Amino acid sequence: NQSPAEQQQFHQACMVGDEATKAGYHDQYFPQTLSALREHVAFILNELEELATWQQSVQDKERHADLDATRHPRLPLIKRHNEFVKYSFQLVQQNLDAM
What we know:
The structure is a single chain. By secondary structure, this protein is an all-alpha fold. The chain is 77% helix and 0% strand. It has three helices and no strands. The mean pLDDT is 89.
């Protein structure tokens, strides 16, 4: 964790364009930043997987007759969007794992 003084120094470096100080902080906190990003990406991928499982179950017309495509015409679009987001996050995860 950064101390308030470090936070202020980093903020000041950002405000005045002090690239060397900013780079120093980025280098210092890179392991924590990488860990937080990995956790976030893993969380989002898990959420998207759970959503995809639910979306598959929605296709069971007997259990979810109220969620058919005629009543909710955007469901296929939402599903494609979620698949795109999942693919994008998988690429990000690959990049993070390579670091």
